[in-house]
Each structure stands twice: as structure tokens, then as C-alpha cells.
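Minutes, project huddle
Topic: does the predicted pose make sense with nicotinamide-adenine-dinucleotide bound?
PN asked that the exact inputs be recorded in the minutes so nobody has to dig through chat later. Recorded below.
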Amino acid sequence: MTHDVVLIPGDGIGPEITRAMQRVVQAAGVDITWHEFEAGAGVIDRYGTPLPAHAIDAIRSVGVAIKGPITTPVGTGFRSVNVELRRTFDLYSCVRPCLSMPGDGSRYQDVDLVIIRENTEDLYAGIEFPATDPGASELRCLVREQTGAVIREDAAISIKPISVWGSERILTYAFEYARRHNRSKVTAVHKANIMKATDGLYLDVARSVAKRYPDIEFDDKIVDAACMGLVMHPEDFDVLVLPNLYGDIVSDLSAGLVGGLGMAPGGNIGENCAIFEATHGSAPDIASQNIANPTAEILSACMLLDHLGEDAAADSIRRAIRTALDAGTHVTADVKRALTGSTEGAAGTDEFTDAVIAAL
Ligand code: NAD
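Predicted holo structure (C-alpha cells), as shared on screen:
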């Protein structure tokens, strides 16, 4: 069966690692028609936007995409293409499995956890008021009237919306994910001891959703304690489900438990659309040098293949990556450095990809 998939190679190391990913998927024998589109700073002159309408239309019609990272200017310039995609397709769930691989260069050996991050609400909803904005003064007055609390005149304000609806759908997604993937425990992560209204609501919803899944163990952890637990005993965790901000931070922390950003895949999932991509950014410092680690992007393609029902191909690619890493002879500079303290003898992106294909 042929699958249609939209491919956005991105910029920086994006084109190198997505090319590696395509080679591996093809070698695994999966028949995919790739519909390729450019996005990011490089297309603004041509289309007046970093995310052209024809790319959006293609994703809408195909329903599934994989992308490379796209550079976002800091502070000024255009809004992140990733944020725009999440918003356009209401990709409310960001799924990041973190699984130890032999020879991944990590300090840990038996990590097997999944971070599920809510993608649309929380302090990341983008509702912000600079200190001098009239909206900030109105909010200062409202807060003083309603609570007596004084917000300084020079304070900028961000709003943290956490809804019952948004919490219920991400928590339900997490429990359904646990069931589908034979996972035994879901941990809801929050700061409800301090943020009683927002995180308190999230925790209440978590407890009530958990009751619908008696076959899955449920517990909750305060985010700071969860971070310490993850660093000390990552093997105690299974599926973690978090509001947006904590989810963002904890997913990078968890990537660090399995060898770093070059090893961590991800998927942004909505009701009608799924977009897969590595956790890391466009790594401009190492772009176009054939030294980037394509593992995270290839593992993201494995998630894509699972999504398409090509589980057998996904599993053989994962096994091939394990074999290539375990052999240790053709690993990229990031892994080599983690293993030996030096990048000497490291393989390039293409060479590592060849090793994965040979193992397939
Ligand atoms: P980054 O992830 O690009 O790089 C951080 C460090 O990790 C760098 O030293 C880089 O060389 C290294 N690294 C990252 N991926 C690697 C790989 N596959 N192999 C080997 N080393 C790797 O983070 P950054 O520098 O903060 O961000 C660069 C740009 O990427 C920014 O413009 C940012 O907005 C963007 N970004 C995009 C996405 C996305 O498209 N999904 C995600 C995060 C950041």
C-alpha cells in the first residue's frame, strides 16, 4: 500500500537529516509518496509568509506530515512555523518517547518513558502584555480590585489559561496512549500546591479521568519533584502527562536521559492531523557539514510509520538503529563525544545512515 506523506525538510540541518530519514524508510520497504514543501525564512520573499498556504492545504488534505527543524528568529521577526502548525491543525498533544539505546552515550541505561505535553494552553497560549501596554494597566487595576494584590507598574504580564476541556482531552489522550502501547502507569505532573486555580483544576481533571481507566495505575507529582525523580530514578516513570510549559522543559530534560536532543523523536497529534519531527532545533552551528545525528528524525519517522499502521517496518528500523549504535563504529560526533569525551573517529550523517541501512 502507498502512503501519502507531506515532507517539510526545514532549514539548518533539516535537509540533511530528512534526506537520511527518507533513505532509511525507503530501505525498510515502505512505499511512501512524499509531497515536499519548503517553509521558513527562505520562502518569505517568494510567498510573503514562512508557512505558505499550499503547504498548509497539502497537510490538511493528506492528514500526516514529517518535518525537519525550522529556524525561528529570537525576540523579533516571524512567529515560529511550528507554533503556527500546532495552532492551525489544533495539534494539542505533543508525544515524545524517550527510550535508552545501547551506545547512546547517555549516563542511564534503562530509560523507557513517554512525555505527553499539552500543546495549546498554559503560559504558551501567547496571551502576553508588555509592561507599558494599556492591557497590562487594565489587568493591574482588575487584579488590585479583585484580589488586593499589587502588580508593579514595570511588570509585563502573561496569562496562563488551563481549561477543563483542554485538560480533559490531553489527559484522555495520555490514558488512551498508555492503553494502546501497553503502558502500565500515567503520572500527571503539575504545581497544584502553588497554582491552586490552574494546576489545581488540571489535577482535579486528571484524578477524574484516571477513574475511567482502572486498568492503568495513576499517580501525580509536583513538577520540581518530578524533575529530581527523573534525574535520580528515571526507571520509576512510564507515561508523564503535563501542561504546556512544564511539558516543554521536562521533555528536553528527558531527552538528556537518553543521549540528548539528537536521539529524541516527537509527534504533534490532533484529531485530524499528525505532524512528526525530531525534538531538536535546526542546529545552525553544524548545518551543511554532514555531522548531524539523524537518529531523532529517523525515530520520528518510526512514530509516523506506527501512525500509518506500518508497525513492523517501524520496529525493524528501531532495531537497526540499536544495532548501528551498539556497534559504535559509525556513530555521529555527538554520540562519540558522549561515549569517549572526543569526536575523533566520528562518522558523518551519511555514514551513520549507511550503517543503519546495512543493519536493516
Ligand atoms: P538546537 O536543538 O538547534 O541546537 C542545540 C545544540 O544541540 C547545538 O549545539 C546543536 O549543534 C546540537 N544539536 C541539535 N540537534 C542535533 C543533531 N541532530 N545532531 C547533533 N547535534 C545536534 O537548539 P537551538 O540552537 O536553541 O535552536 C536553533 C534554532 O532551531 C532556533 O532558531 C530555534 O528556534 C529552532 N528550533 C526549531 C525547532 C523545530 O523546528 N521543531 C525546535 C527547536 C528549536
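Observations noted during the meeting:
- Residues 108 and 232 are 10 Å apart (CA to CA).
- The mean pLDDT is 94.
No decisions taken; revisit at the next huddle.
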